[in-house]
Amino acid sequence: MLVKEAMSTTVLTIGPAHTLRQAARLMAARRIGAAVVFDKDTFGIGILTERDILNSLGAGENPDREIAQSHTTSDVVFAAPDWTLDEAAGAMVRGGFRHLVVLDNLEPVGIVSVRDIIRCWSDVSVRTPAAA
Predict the structure, then answer these.
(1) What is the pLDDT of residue 131?
(2) Residue 7 burial by CB count (10 A; 0-12/13-18/19+): exposed, middle or buried?
(3) Which pLDDT score is estimated for 129?
(4) CA distance 54 to 34
(5) Which residues pair with 47 in a beta bridge?
(6) Angle at 97 between CA 58 and CA 50, to 5 degrees
(7) pTM greater than 0.85 (yes/no)
């Protein structure tokens, strides 16, 4: 199976000046664990994850003052839509992270997470709270 078949195409893109609270609210509203941070001035792409926000809060930092740029992973490993899930999982294991931004022609087109990969590799169907 390929990354393009497993990835989420719901990509939240925020700017580097968004506060962590703003990012967290947007991520929570979309029920996603990562946001792509795009700096239009440098055309740089980074990623801000729920863990980055959690680490900041755990360190006692103020989410209304801390900005995404200060907590963004900028040395991002990108996946291509035609990577296999094995390739994506290998990149995650080697890098020690749970999300990969998927680029097609240098544009973010999706995010693939460990959860996406497990869902594809598993025979278990996704249960909704009503079905549980």
Answers:
(1) 46
(2) buried
(3) 53
(4) 12
(5) 36, 73
(6) 40
(7) no
The answer for residues whose C-beta is within 8 angstroms of residue 12's C-beta and 6 or more apart is: 26, 27, 30, 32, 34, 35, 36
Sign for the CA dihedral angle at 99, 112, 48, 124 comes to negative
Q: Which segments of the chain have a pLDDT < 70?
A: 123-132
Q: Which of 68, 24, 31 is nearest to 50 (CA)?
A: 24
Residue 105 in tokens = 């022609």
The SS3 call for residue 4 is helix
Total H helices, total E strands in the chain: 5, 6
How far apart are alpha carbons 63 and 17 in whole angstroms?
Answer: 12
How many Å from the N-terminal Cα to the C-terminal Cα in the chain?
28
Q: Judge residue 43's burial from the number of C-beta atoms within 10 Å of its C-beta, 0-12 exposed, 13-18 middle, 19 or more buried.
A: exposed
